[in-house]
Amino acid sequence: MSNVLKNRTWRYATKKFDANKRVSDTDLELLLEATRLSASSYGLQPYHVFVITDPEIKAKLRPVSWNQSQITDASHIIVFANITDFGEELLDGYMKNVSDTRNIPEESLKGYGDFMKSKLLNLSEETKNIWTIKQVYIALGNMMQAAAELEIDTCPMEGFESEAYNEILGLDEKDLNASVVLAVGYRSDEDETQHYAKVRKSKEELFTHI
Q: What are phi and psi of 107, to 5 degrees?
């Protein structure tokens, strides 16, 4: 079996983490860099990622996460927060980054910048919010796969109260919203779910070749 499939077969949504095992700083940096390099629409990365290890913050988050033990037992809690609304500042900042990174005059990028603005700035706030959440999930998938390659366990979590997370982490004033959480660490020997067979649709049911 190729490593591509081996990694995906090995990983599962870890239900019980070993609270005594920590992800090393080196491996954490690899996970974050893999996430930073993730694809996103137009390359805009309209989100921010919070890496939480503070026991007091994790303790506050657990009750508003359906009291799931992963929040306090996992080595790190990664909160992906989407930008809820945006204007020209997001796009202009990206175009400046392109200019600086590729050593291209900003004036030569104006056409592309105007194109992006024509497609994005007239969207409603609700539509912008939905679009930025979609971008978060691309980054989430990249972090999960990078973790599997390093044999680091993860559990993606939507079972939490976004409003409470936003309050605890001070996200509202930053126009951010906690959209998904990833617990990162190492599985406990007591987690029986690690032994379950992976249940997925068959290829015949899932794929159509045209």
A: -60, -35
What CATH number was assigned to the domain covering residues 3-88+121-206? 3.40.109.10
Listed residue (176, 186, 184) closest to 49, CA to CA: 176
With residue 176 as reference, give the H or E element that holds it. strand 176-185
Report the alpha-carbon distance of residue 61 to residue 64 in Å, rounded: 5
Split at pLDDT 50, 70, 90, the class of 184 is very high
Question: Residue 71, exposed/middle/buried by CB under 10 A (0-12, 13-18, 19+)?
Answer: buried
Q: How far is CA 96 from CA 62, 101, 103, 107, 171, in A?
A: 39, 8, 10, 10, 25
Q: Dump the DSSP string for 53-83.
A: --HHHHHHHTGGGTT-THHHHSSEEEEEEEE
Which pLDDT value is given to residue 1? 66
Can you tell me the mean pLDDT for 171-197? Answer: 97
Integer CA distances (angstroms), 138 to 11, 22, 77, 162, in order: 18, 25, 18, 19
